[in-house]
Amino acid sequence: MTRVAVIGGGRIGEALVVGLIDAGYAIKDLVVAEHDGGRAADLSSRLGVRVTDAAADAAEGADLVVLAVKPSDVDRVLTDLGRIELGGQREQVLVSMVAGVSTSRYENKLPAGFPVVRVMPNTPILVGQGMIVIAPGRYARPGHLETVGEVLGAVGRVTTVAENQMDAVTAVSGSGPAYCFLVAEALIDGAVGVGLSLRTATELVVQTMVGAAAMLQESGESPNDLRAAVTSPGGTTAAAVRELERAGVRSAFIEAVHAAKERSERHGSATE
Ligand SMILES: NC(=O)C1=CN([C@@H]2O[C@H](COP(=O)(O)OP(=O)(O)OC[C@H]3O[C@@H](n4cnc5c(N)ncnc54)[C@H](OP(=O)(O)O)[C@@H]3O)[C@@H](O)[C@H]2O)C=CC1
Ligand SMILES: O=C(O)[C@@H]1CCC=N1
């Protein structure tokens, strides 16, 4: 099995490890580097994986070295990885999940020709329902992409784009679950406001989102058509949607995606 080292056992690093284990990945083929001692101990006892505090230690012997650290920590990790002979003993690929940081930035610091693949996952990888977008760097060959796709395909749907689309991707599917959770929070607030208990409100909102998502995925119809089918003439949905449009919800989402893309771009320019 492909050996995977995850550098950074934070939110997305842990989600990846849990998702892979739940999908049947062998624990012996996973290792995590996490420099927060408390978190490292917690991950090791809860997940049963080997956790080390040194990125170089984790990367040694791994086929995929997955970076899941904050953009500001990338330099430190690359310096640490410089202590070992990356790609010397075996074919290795660096997989960066870091928002905004380009493959060329890694390529410039890694041994010449080292393959780098930029990936944007999202937290639903935790439950095998992630959206994982891949962009190959200059030296990533089809075989490398296949390996990355195979491993990450266990935790969600994988698609490939050109790297110049990755900031947009980050703004849509990377941050996207947070937008959905915000909508859920607001709907639950509304449901409680019209007299439902928090428990009932949560049940109704969650299942409504699950059902709507399933229709989006399975019906082949556009969101607009699906919404029209809920909207009876002169009815409740029309009254609600009029309020949402009056409040500028649509344009707020559009602006939100622009803001996220710009933030991702700034991560890149801050570290180039
Ligand atoms: N959260 C998400 O939904 C997504 C995140 N990402 C990307 O993933 C990256 C991580 O995000 P997230 O998981 O939210 O962040 P977290 O801060 O939760 O996780 C990063 C973890 O890495 C640790 N760390 C930092 N440097 C090292 C090192 N040299 N060796 C070992 N461990 C280290 C941090 O420890 P400490 O805090 O002590 O520094 C922290 O525990 C970001 O670049 C983000 O853009 C991508 C897609 C989705
Ligand atoms: O908020 C962030 O910066 C990261 C990138 C995508 C999702 N979380």
Give me some keywords for this one.
272 residues, alpha/beta, Rossmann fold, ProC C-terminal domain-like fold, 8-stranded mixed sheet, 8 strands, 52% helix, elongated, binds NADPH dihydro-nicotinamide-adenine-dinucleotide phosphate
Q: Can you offer a commentary on this structure?
A:
The protein is of the alpha/beta class and 272 residues long. The protein folds into 2 domains: 158 residues, NAD(P)-binding Rossmann-like Domain (Rossmann fold); 92 residues, ProC C-terminal domain-like fold (Orthogonal Bundle), CATH 1.10.3730. It is built from 12 helices and 8 strands. The chain has an 8-stranded mixed β-sheet. Helix 7 crosses helix 12 and helix 8 packs across helix 9. The longest helix is centred in the last third of the chain and has 23 residues. It is elongated and about 70 Å long. The two termini are 34 Å apart. (2S)-3,4-dihydro-2H-pyrrole-2-carboxylic acid binds next to helix 7.
